[in-house]
Design goal:
With 375 residues, this protein is mostly helical. It contains 16 helices and 3 strands. The protein has a 3-stranded antiparallel β-sheet with strand order 1-2-3. A hairpin with a 6-residue loop joins strand 1 (22-24) and strand 2 (31-33). It binds acetyl coenzyme *A and oxaloacetate ion. Residues 12, 220-222, 224, 254-261, 306, 309-311 line the site of acetyl coenzyme *A. The active site is at residues 260, 311. Keywords: Transferase, Tricarboxylic acid cycle.
């Protein structure tokens, strides 16, 4: 299959380094983590296994996985000063800002003092991030101080348990597992590249992750799942969705959840999350949001040959599991953290500071004028 046509803007199509972690679009719409096909991982693995694969370099055997899950479960508690900071953040704050502050505060309390700690620091963030966002959410919205130390076996189930105050159903825990796997890693995407640039200065791992959260927040990247939800929730029927989408295209507006910087004609993650969104729609008795989403997908392909990326059907899937829209992108953080940290390790292993050149477009040499002589 032909490579996607690219121009130099946004560093598109240029190699900015090497990685052993992931291939994106290598055979058109392929995606692999350390050589494992995303379909195999999403169909068979636990997210904790994928986290292990990315962070430790190989798939765990049963004993290693059991030990890893026990370790992650033991790291779910939040320090009191972090809880106090989270309690100060207003209910109308953007949850990605809460994540950013949470990651940064954790870095103040449990600073990475040496790169020898990188594995433990990553495991700690992986265990604690669902607690950080849900502690803030439940406190600021419901006035409840939740205990983030649950006994849930999976990170996805743990997230839903904290949010809803009761253990997740088997189906919902399963879908969260798939979702976290699909979002875990994606080569040199903008947030991962941010983490690597930060790592290349030999900074600490919390700074790398905090910066990456800021990059993921934007609607052209991770924020697209929320933006897609804000769009589709307004439409009552597929016909209304079609009319509105045609209008948006006419006005040259961006349709969130569509298109990709690397894939050419499909994002392999879409079919997988779409399948689960359909299953959840059936469970929820939905006859609006899923058909609306399908019609948007149809119209975008028919009119523009633009396809759904990983974010589009995540919107309806998360909605059907009762997840508030503003928590969509923080879930992405809880997953992509694994990819970010693995890239930080890789960068540190073979580091040179990332410092490209710029093509200068400013004025030629100018004459210095004292301030009282300027216009
Ligand atoms: C998990 C993730 O982060 S996946 C990405 C999530 N982001 C989104 O869903 C936001 C919407 N999508 C987009 O903005 C873009 O497709 C990006 C940012 C993902 C990729 O950007 P690029 O690589 O610059 O896109 P690309 O080169 O394919 O664009 C080609 C043309 O299609 C248009 N296009 C691309 N995506 C869209 C879209 N979603 N809606 C409308 N038009 C689009 C572009 O405007 C461009 O048109 P132009 O040549 O007239 O300027
Ligand atoms: O690779 C990208 O540019 C964006 C993306 O799909 C991701 O980060 O998952």
């Amino acid at each position: 299959m032909a490579e996607k046509a690219t121009s130099g803007a946004g560093l598109r199509g240029q190699s900015a380094g090497s990685t052993a972690l992931c291939t994106v679009g290598k055979e058109g719409s392929g995606l692999t983590y350390r050589g494992y096909d995303i379909h195999d991982l999403a169909d068979h693995a636990r997210f904790e296994e994928v986290a292990y694969l990315l962070l430790k370099g190989k798939l765990p055997n049963q004993q290693e996985l059991d030990d890893y899950v026990v370790k992650l479960k033991s790291l779910r508690g939040l320090p009191e000063p972090l809880k106090r900071v989270l309690e100060e953040i207003p209910a109308d704050a953007h949850p990605m800002d809460v994540m950013r502050t949470g990651a940064s505060m954790l870095g103040n309390l449990e600073t990475e003092k040496s790169f020898d700690e990188q594995q433990d620091q990553s495991d700690r963030m992986l265990a604690a991030f669902p607690g950080i966002i849900n502690y803030w959410y439940r406190y600021s919205h419901d006035g409840v101080r939740i205990d983030t130390d649950t006994d849930d076996e999976s990170i996805g189930g743990h997230f839903l348990h904290l949010l809803h105050g009761k253990p997740a159903s088997e189906l919902h825990a399963r879908v969260m597992n798939v979702s976290l796997i699909l979002y875990a890693e994606h080569e040199f995407n903008a947030s991962t590249f941010t983490a690597r640039v930060c790592a290349s200065t030999l900074s600490d791992i919390h700074s790398c992750v905090t910066g990456a959260i800021g990059s993921l927040r934007g609607p052209l990247h991770g924020g697209a799942n929320e933006a897609a939800m804000d769009m589709i929730e307004n439409w009552q029927s597929p016909d209304e969705a079609e009319r509105e989408i045609l209008g948006m295209l006419e006005r040259k507006e961006k349709i969130m959840g569509f298109g990709h910087a690397v894939y050419r004609d499909s994002d392999p993650r879409n079919a997988m999350i779409k399948k689960w969104s359909k299953e959840l729609a059936k469970e929820a008795g939905d006859d609006r949001l899923y058909p609306v989403s399908e019609r948007v997908e149809e119209v975008m392909w028919r009119e523009k040959k633009l396809f759904c990326n990983a974010d589009f059907f995540h919107a309806s899937a998360y909605y059907f599991m009762g997840i508030p829209t503003k928590l969509f992108t923080p879930i992405f953080v809880c997953s992509r953290l694994t990819g970010w940290c693995a890239h930080v390790f890789e960068q540190r292993e073979n580091n040179r500071i990332i410092r490209p050149n710029a093509d200068y477009t400013g004025p030629e040499k100018q004459e210095w004028l004292p301030i009282d002589q300027r216009d």
